[in-house]
Please model this.
Amino acid sequence: MAANDKASKTETAKEEQDSPILIQMGIFAAILFVSSLLSPLFPASFPVPTPVMGLVILYVLLCTKIVKLRNVAKFGDFMISLIAFLFVPSGIQMAANLDIMKAQGVQIVIVTIIATIVMLVCIAYTTAGFMWLSRHVFHRNTEVEE
Amino acid sequence: MISLAATATPHMAVWGKWLGDALGTNAAGASAGNAIFGIFLSLMVYLIGQWLFKISKGFFLFQPLFVGMVLGIFILFLMAKAFGTDTATFYKSAYLPGGNIIFWFLNPATIAFAIPLYRRNDIVKRFWLEIVLSLIIGLLISLFIIYFVAKLFGLDNSGIASMLPQAATTAIAMPVAVSVGGNSAITAMACIINAVLIYALGDFLVKVFKLNSDPIGAGLGLGTAGHAVGTAKAIQLGSIQGSMASIAVVVVSIVVDIVVPPFAHMMGLY
Model:
């Protein structure tokens, strides 16, 4: 059933025109503006940064069909395709922190590298474990279509 | 004033002032020209990375982001030497204005991850409980392992506290690190290393640990370990992976918000 939904969705998406790129940018700007107003309302002990707030808002707007994929997908997919490049300044930012590297030594970097692999593998294997549980203990169908 | 003028002949002084003005390292030039250098340098080093990646037929150390970062820092280091100042100062005056403009676009790019998430809403609706439980339990296990690895490498309490929140997106990880007695600059650096590493080694790690047999787990793992950049990697693997990585970025950040302070307290870090 879910698969049928998806098929009909992509069909209609083909028939309907993408919104002009400026309108798509306008939707993103409006969401960013609203999230920048909302995110300071959260207490300092529970920070919700503007882009995370915006992600949630756009997801809710898509789920409630207030915003349709054709209104945002072209600009959104373009921004996602740029993300590795957009990260270059963050990488170069480490130039300003070369003194921290000197002070704390190489250990921090090694621990971070190990931590990255640990997070990837732990989360992935835990998920595989939970999927196994719902398949064999709760007898749910966990087949997914690519 | 930081410029070549101090070190060179009068002929050189003119050039030094001209270059300093353009880069914004002279007081007088701290306006129009200075954002251009940061944008230009970022694009050039990234494009060189893309070119190297292509001619080396995809050698993992030549990932454009990694090359761009290393080459960019190296060029700033050399230029700082030539201008007779330290790298951090030169970075702030010459690179940062342009870098910040590019950095700003991470805001709309992060919001855009709602799109791949929504495209596989069927998976989210069917498995939301498994997803949330896996992220909470998986993160707790990771926290224990990271704590003991950090202990093993002899980090002090402040160093360990800086390592714990790195699963969250930088803007959340930094204040959490401070609240558990860590150093937010180290945490920010850890988040950057996460992303660069996952982008360079993601395919390799997925293959070695055979993660792709469970696309939901692979996606959640990539989103947690690699943040937004990991999500971009996950989208290349498939729509389910991309959708799951997007949801991981949001949910893990909130879980870190809630779980890391009591965990650090339990471990006696602060």
Summary: The two ends of chain B are 43 Å apart (CA to CA). The CA atoms of residues 195 and 229 of chain B lie 6 Å apart. The longest helix of chain B spans residues 121-152. The mean pLDDT of chain B is 88.
